[in-house]
Design brief:
CATH architecture of the largest domain: 2-Layer Sandwich
Distance between the termini: 76 Å
CATH class of the largest domain: Alpha Beta
Largest sheet: 5 strands, antiparallel
Shape: elongated
Strand content: 15-25%
Number of domains: 3
Number of strands: 12
Order of helices and strands: HHEEHEEEHHHEHEEHEEHHEE
Structural class: alpha+beta
CATH superfamily of the largest domain: Histidine kinase-like ATPase, C-terminal domain
Helix content: 40-55%
Radius of gyration: 49 Å
């Protein structure tokens, strides 16, 4: 409705402006035509009065009568130098315009305001005596009014056509817009199957296409979220069921005394698994909030990696997995959040160890400098430090590396084929490394499995002690 009113209002405003401008142009044109006509008549009279002969007065009287019938007053200069004419008011106007002082060959054109009316004066001088023709600017008032009536009629027809055209155009524009708005409201109410019809002008059709693309994106996103929530629910239910079953067996007294320690270890392990899952969920939620803060400070990556290796050596020995640590002899100091970086590295090592068969290696590596060859890394020549977690496990399919950090994608693809969590770890690692100002990538490892590389900026270059 508002668009219709706007279109019609614009059409009416344009018609009114055109009418006002047209009327002014007609009046100005009428004045110009009258001035031109009066000037031409003055030139003709000047030619006829050239020379002093006996018929001068007779010819002048006859011309004055003819001009009077046309609404033109004639004022002439007598031998005594005074101005004279049949119209006293015209004589006064000519006197005020100093017509009597004109020299031969001089042309005088004036626009006079007489009692609110516009008068035009054309004066010439012949043989030392001047004359003037004075007429109202509305000399062609009848023709002017006729033209104005015709222009107003044309404007009225144009206005009617503009209003009708505006109503039609507004209807063509607003109908698809209303349908698109209905689609958007349905999407807001939860419907993801509704689509807006692509119709109307190109710009309106583009809006409908954009809304449909948004609906597709929302449908896909919500589908992914449902799959993710289903996966998380399953992962939560599994340790909870184990804990509940073991606790119920203990409370019922059906667990032999010799198996109680094993039951306790199982409950503790499942509790730790549940705690890690909940912690990952909370961290992912916090990463999207402004309140998430990093504790930045100097961090020796060589020391961090060796400290991590001392912890993982025990776990690798339990699984008969060789642990290889590759680090420079000196310190590699960066400014980062050591706790969050260690969280990322531990998560990557946990994923690798879960899939490693006995005898297959787990590699923790630190290297510097690294050429910035990955998109998003600072420009060429900027010092970089590289941290890698590599393994000799089954690795990933080539098409899986680019989507490795998308939440739940790998979990969905390898469900039932490999042991794994809810698919939160890699998504969390990507978010944390990005917050730390680094870049994390995935690719095949020389050892035959997967390689996860973290590149962090090293503004001060390599520091050795």
């Amino acid at each position: 409705m508002r668009i219709t009113v706007l279109v019609v209002s614009v059409a009416v405003a344009v018609a009114i402006i055109a009418g006002v401008v047209g009327a002014a142009m007609i009046r100005n044109t009428a004045v110009d035509v009258t001035r031109t006509y009066l000037s031409n008549q003055a030139n003709v009279l000047q030619q006829q009065l050239a020379g002093e002969d006996p018929g001068y007065r007779i010819g002048l009287v006859k011309l004055a009568q003819v001009f009077k019938q046309q609404g033109i007053s004639v004022v002439t200069e007598g031998r005594n130098g005074r101005l004279d004419g049949a119209d006293a008011q015209a004589v006064r106007q000519a006197t005020n315009a100093a017509v009597a002082t004109l020299a031969d060959g001089t042309v005088l054109s004036r626009t006079l305001n007489v009692n609110g009316r516009t008068e035009l004066l054309e004066a010439r001088s012949v043989n030392g005596r001047a004359f003037a023709l004075i007429a109202s600017a509305d000399l062609g008032a009848g023709t002017q009014k006729t033209l104005q009536r015709r222009v107003l009629l044309a404007l009225g027809i144009g206005l009617l056509a503009a209003v009708l055209g505006g109503l039609v155009i507004a209807r063509l524009v607003t109908r698809p817009l209303r349908r698109t708005a209905d689609t958007a409201r349905a999407m807001g109410a939860g419907s993801r199957q509704t689509r807006a019809p692509v119709a109307g002008p190109q710009e309106v059709a583009d809006v409908a296409v954009a809304v449909n693309e948004l609906a597709d994106a929302l449908q896909h996103s919500e589908s992914r979220q449902r799959e993710f929530l289903t996966s998380v629910s399953h992962e939560l239910r599994t340790p909870l069921a184990a804990i509940s079953g073991q606790a119920e067996a203990l409370s019922d007294g059906i667990v032999p005394e010799s198996e109680v320690p094993q039951v306790g270890r199982t409950i503790r392990a499942e509790s730790a698994r549940l705690e890690r899952l909940v912690s990952d969920l909370l961290d992912l939620a916090r990463l999207g909030a402004d309140s998430f803060r990093l504790e930045l400070g100097p961090c020796d990556l060589t020391a961090l990696m060796r400290e991590m290796a001392s912890v993982w050596q025990v776990r690798c020995d339990q699984r008969a997995v060789p642990l290889i640590v590759s680090a420079p002899g000196g310190s590699v100091v960066v400014v980062t959040d050591a706790r969050r970086l260690r969280q990322v590295l531990d998560g990557l090592a946990e994923n690798a160890l879960r899939l490693l068969a006995p005898g297959r290696p787990l590699v923790l590596a630190v290297d510097v400098p690294v050429s910035p060859v990955v998109q998003g890394v600072p420009g060429p020549g900027a010092p970089q430090v590289l941290l890698q977690v590599r393994d000799g496990g089954p690795g990933l399919e080539p098409q899986d590396y680019p989507v490795a950090f998308e939440q739940g994608v790998l979990h969905e693809r390898y469900r039932g084929r490999r042991p794994g969590g809810a698919g939160l770890g890699l998504a969390l690692a990507h978010s944390l490394v990005t917050r730390l100002g680094g870049v994390i990538t995935a690719g095949p490892a020389p050892e035959g499995g997967a390689c996860f590389s973290i590149r962090l900026p090293l503004p001060g270059g390599r520091s050795q002690v």
